[in-house]
Write the structure tokens for this entry.
Amino acid sequence: MEREYKLQMKARVAKRALDTLKEIMDEPYSVIIRDAAIQRFEYTFEAIWKLIKEYLLEREGIVCNSPKSCFREAFRINLINEDESMQALYMTDDRNMTTHTYHEDIAEEIYKELAGYYSLMNRIYMSIARDSGLE
């Protein structure tokens, strides 16, 4: 019961984070919007991989302790397909690069990927929510 509650809480946090990321991405581009979007991507990424981690533990009994290991396990159980798995690994690398967004070129490259990353994270959220009866 406690694990189920924890999964529900992680799902709520992930949904709120996704909503805030979508909201900022709908704003007209500026450097301030770009930087805010990257920051929202950071916490949305954290919420999504931790949701996957909890889902894998709750539903499959799988323990994973890093984003990449969780994405690999999500692929293994068919939560995501191979292309999504590869995109998730690239997304993880970009998340790790966000500490270098003071480099304009890195910030711009990450920003250009955010729409695709949002779509991927939203699909993962929706799959987990559907499977867990959280919709």
About this structure: The chain has a mean pLDDT of 95. Residues 39 and 98 are 8 Å apart (CA to CA). Helices lie at 2-25, 31-60, 67-76, 82-97, 104-132. Residues 31-60 form the longest helix (30 residues).
